[in-house]
Amino acid sequence: MQLRTPSIFLPLQFKATFLYIIVALVMLVPQSSLAFQQNNTELDYNEYSGEVKEASGNKALVFATLTVEGTNISTISNTEGNFLLKVPKEHVSKNLVVSFLGYRTKILPISSLERQGNEISLEVSVTQLSEININAPKNAMALVKETLKNRDENYFQDPSLMTAFYRETIKRRRRNVSLAEAVVNVYKTPYNIVREDAVELYKARKSTDYSKLDTVALKLQGGPYNTLYVDMMKYPEYIFSEESLTNYKFTFDRSVRTNDRLIYVIRFNQHEGILEPLYQGELYIDVENKILTGAVFSLNITDRDQAAQLFVRRKPAKVDVWPTEVSYRVDYREKNGKWHYGYSSVFMEFKVDWADKWFNSQYSMTAEMAITDWETVSKDERPKYRQRIRKSIILSDEASGFSDPDFWGEYNIIEPEKSIESAIRKIQRQLRRSERNSD
Q1: Residue 20 in contact with residue 12, Cβ under 8 Å?
Q2: Per-residue CA distances from 286 to 137, 237, 255, 283 (Å)
Q3: With 0-12 CB in 10 A as exposed, 13-18 as middle and 19+ as buried, what is 107?
Q4: Could you say which of 64, 139, 255, 302 is the most buried, measured as most Cβ atoms within 10 Å of its Cβ?
Q5: Where are the transmembrane segments (predicted)?
Q6: How far apart are CA 366 and CA 348, in angstroms?
Q7: Residues near 229 by Cβ (< 8 Å), separated by ≥ 6?
């Protein structure tokens, strides 16, 4: 029996979204939860793994997109450049398309891939200076406004049912203390309507090592919604509403090429006279078609106390909590001339300072979600309210533990980083010992 203990909530908000943290005092108890079991007697897919890197310098390319040509099946490389792709056998005769911003897209037959150890090298795509000056916009803010205005025309106009892989991790310094993963169904509403997206949980797994949490258990509230709301083209009101645009200064930074498209990099930052913590970062805009293809940005922590007020709702009297970094990323993909949400992540680093301790604790949380397949559906296929996960979901409370290495079956996932793989192997060994002791 697991003891119930009092909990203290420290919600961390991404403006009006649902990025939260719960900090709770816990008693250390053994965990005995087991994962869903899945037995695949005959696989109807091939699995390929490898690394995407730069051709000239062997630098790992992080978040490169890998897509099976002519399908909606895709995945991305992880923060170490590694990828894992599962291709249904009916598609193994097709090509694999590998793309990365600023590099030449590579197309290669899937039949030429080995099951493991593939090395895919991409060459840098050089942009000539003359290209930058031809029909170049003169006003960066005007380009951003026009891109937002063209959203209804350039992005999906039909409802879609997307299969997505979601992962969230919590680390105390460099050590993983909590892992949670899920395959979810995302009902993505058209970009030209105000209605919000809906998420349905398909399957999930998790583990938390409370012994490394310093008697403080952290849980991320909101789950996949944390990443879904980073889709700024679907939810521009969370960062670039018509009223808030004037709070920012937009400037041209550089230009790159990807998929034979000229991409302008627009830097933005809040005006110096604004004291409220806003955002700073880069927008990647297809200048010819006025399309946002991706964005990387972070909270501008100008004042620690003000930033803490944005994120902390309630906390113990003797605990001080403040963020040291909050950053976001979103990438879009194109199909038949229309663009859609493909990947997003949220990274948060913060400190917890107890008044009666000499040293404070440093924690980081990462949440990421990648669309691995999708199909156009009718509006009637939107899941009922009782089928959707709540926006207050705590995924680690909804999932079971790690045990089955073939847990995900045919579903594409993001290849775990080495530190996560090591943590999962350790968890599996612990569960096996626990099972043997209970027999």
Answers
A1: yes
A2: 12, 21, 10, 10
A3: exposed
A4: 64
A5: 12-30
A6: 6
A7: 14, 17, 18, 19, 235, 238
Q: Which residues pair with 43 in a beta bridge?
A: none
**Rounded-to-integer distance, Cα 76 and Cα 232, Å:** 20
Q: By C-alpha distance, which of 244, 256, 243, 311 is closest to 282?
A: 256
- Please name the residues in contact with 313: beta carbons below 8 A apart, sequence gap of 6 or more: 9, 10, 11
End-to-end CA distance of the chain: 18
Q: Identity (one letter) of the amino acid at 149?
A: K
**270, 280 contact by CB (below 8 A):** yes
CB–CB of 363/347 below 8 Å? Answer: no
Positions in the chain whose pLDDT score sits under 70:
1-42, 127-137, 208-218, 311-315, 359, 427-439
| Chain segment 158-209, per-residue pLDDT in tens | 999 999 999 999 888 888 888 899 999 999 999 999 889 999 999 999 876 6
**DSSP letter at 83?**
E
Q: How many CA atoms lie within 13 A of 327 on its CB side?
A: 11
CA–CA separation, 98 and 105 (whole Å): 6
Rounded Cα distance between 371 and 283, Å, is 21
Pairwise CA distance, residues 164 & 168, whole Å: 13
Measured in degrees and rounded to the nearest 5, phi and psi for residue 77 equal -80, 150
15: number of Cβ within 10 Å: 16
